[in-house]
TrEMBL record:
Listed NCBIfam families: PRK01346.1-4
UniProtKB keywords: Acyltransferase, Transferase
Assembly and binders: Homohexamer; trimer of dimers.
Record-linked PROSITE patterns: GNAT (PS51186)
NAD keyword on record: no
Active site (record annotation): Y124, F404
Residues that hold acetyl-CoA according to the record: V83, S84, V85, R91, R92, G93, V94, A95, S96, S119, E120
Protein name in the entry: UPF0256 protein
N-acetyltransferase domain sequence ranges: 6-146
Similarity remark: Belongs to the acetyltransferase Eis family.
UniProt-listed HAMAP family: Eis
Length: 404
């Protein structure tokens, strides 16, 4: 419950410095402005601040983006960011007030889905966000690994170019590719400035970005200088590998794996990145999982029909959602030819789940069958959870390649 001394409103230009200070203090960042890159993408009319009297003590923003959902559809999404509460004012309901204000606003605007990256895993479920809506594979692999004989590498010339030369091409490629990949987001000009901001403070001892172009894709990476008595064994830290064709993906991976003076590659990528199946020794590719996007169904009846489904189902879902109570209750969820309709019903529930579980499953990331085994989904009519699980799954794991 929010403290009654608190007030909340959207911010104006004159609030930006205070907003930046709260963020910096909350994220333990340098208050000198080093971490202000996120302010570049902030939409002031969607950025909220909480005040205790005249003192700003909490911040949060929503970025208006599009997300690609199954069926290669782009739908509006509220991308929640810079949630921060000044130390000394925590655990008195400031973040709860921000979350509530954002979600009620999205409900009124008709934005059916919200997403975020969580700084800590124990914060956001209580607000109805579902974990592992997309996952991340943290891959590390040695260079010079051979490919499986079935993997073709073309003789296309791959060129390392300057950032200025790369940028227009990368934007075009990304814009086409993001429309085909579940979990990818639209980018504005400022998004590019933030995503590939190449400030010293972000490099953590690595080099600036290197940009390499293929006619059908691109890669961006940094280098960490490493070596031993046998010679240089530098690490390539891949930031983006975006390709319009499978051929470009193989060619660019080969280019990176064959880089002279490099000993290892690391890449935060999709859980099902095909590289595991491309190399001749898949065990040499180490893969660690991490949660990535957390997804919140803002409106059950508007969100579920936005995507395409893999199979037809007809189930009554009992949704529990105390934070957004308009979702509470029973909904008949019917999919015909992959298209869903959702309507209120008095019929008995086949399955009971909370909003967070539905959010986890929405893009085809977490499986409802697994959430059932985790005691998060309850099946009343045998067979319905398995049928729903199959309907929600897609050909690939959803993946969001960027933190916002
Ligand atoms: C999308 C993003 O921006 S992710 C970034 C999130 N921000 C940060 O990590 C910056 C550092 N942390 C903070 O600024 C704050 O601690 C916040 C924003 C995480 C939480 O703010 P608070 O105002 O303290 O949260 P609030 O008081 O509304 O807490 C609501 C509930 O969540 C719980 N909670 C809040 N933060 C945490 C946490 N870090 N870990 C576990 N539980 C938490 C509270 O205990 C409370 O539980 P209750 O309802 O059972 O009493």
């Amino acid at each position: 419950m929010a403290d009654s001394a608190l007030s909340i409103r959207t911010i104006g230009r004159s609030d930006v410095d205070a907003f930046q200070t709260v963020m910096a203090w909350a994220f333990l960042a340098d208050p000198s402005g080093e971490d202000s890159k996120w302010l570049k993408v902030l939409e002031l009319d969607r950025a909220h601040a909480v005040f205790d009297g005249d003192e700003m003590i909490g911040t949060a923003g929503v970025l208006s983006r599009e997300i690609t959902v199954p069926g290669e559809r782009q739908v509006p999404v509220g991308a929640v960011t810079v949630v921060s509460v000044k130390p000394g004012h925590r655990r008195r309901g400031v973040a709860s007030l921000l979350m509530k204000t954002q979600l009620h606003g999205m409900h009124e605007n008709g934005e059916a889905i919200a997403i975020l990256w969580a700084s800590e895993g124990s914060i956001y479920r209580r607000f109805g966000y579902g974990e592992y809506a997309t996952s991340l594979a943290m891959l590390t692999m040695p260079t010079r690994m051979a490919f499986h004989p079935g993997v073709r590498v073309s003789d296309t010339r791959i060129r390392q170019v300057t950032r200025d030369e790369a940028m227009p091409f990368m934007r075009e490629v990304h814009e086409r590719v993001r429309r085909t990949k579940v979990g990818w987001l639209s980018r504005r000009a400022e998004t590019w400035d933030v995503q590939l901001a190449d400030r010293e403070v972000d490099r953590d001892g690595l080099t600036s970005y290197r940009y390499v172009l293929h006619p059908e894709g691109y890669a961006v990476f940094r280098v960490k200088y490493q070596g031993d008595p046998s010679g240089p064994q530098h690490e390539l830290h891949v930031r983006e590998l975006v390709c319009e064709t499978e051929q470009a993906y193989a060619d660019l991976y080969r280019y990176l794996l064959d880089m002279d003076l490099a000993g290892a590659i690391s890449f935060y990528t999709a859980w099902d990145d095909p590289i595991l199946h491309m190399v001749d020794n898949p065990r040499k590719v180490r893969r660690e999982a991490s949660d990535a996007l957390w997804l919140r169904i803002v409106d059950v009846d508007r969100a579920l029909p936005l995507r395409h489904y893999s199979s037809d189902v007809d189930s009554v879902l009992e949704v529990e959602d105390s934070f957004c109570p308009w979702n509470n209750g029973r909904w008949r969820f019917t999919v015909k030819n992959g298209e869903a309709t959702v309507a209120r019903t008095e019929d008995p529930a086949d399955v009971t789940l909370d909003a967070a579980a539905l959010g986890s499953a929405f893009l085809g990331g977490a499986r409802l069958s697994v959430l059932k085994r985790a005691h998060r989904v309850v099946e009343h009519t045998p067979g319905h959870v398995d049928a729903l699980t199959i309907a929600f799954l897609g050909a690939y794991y959803p993946h969001c390649p960027e933190v916002f």
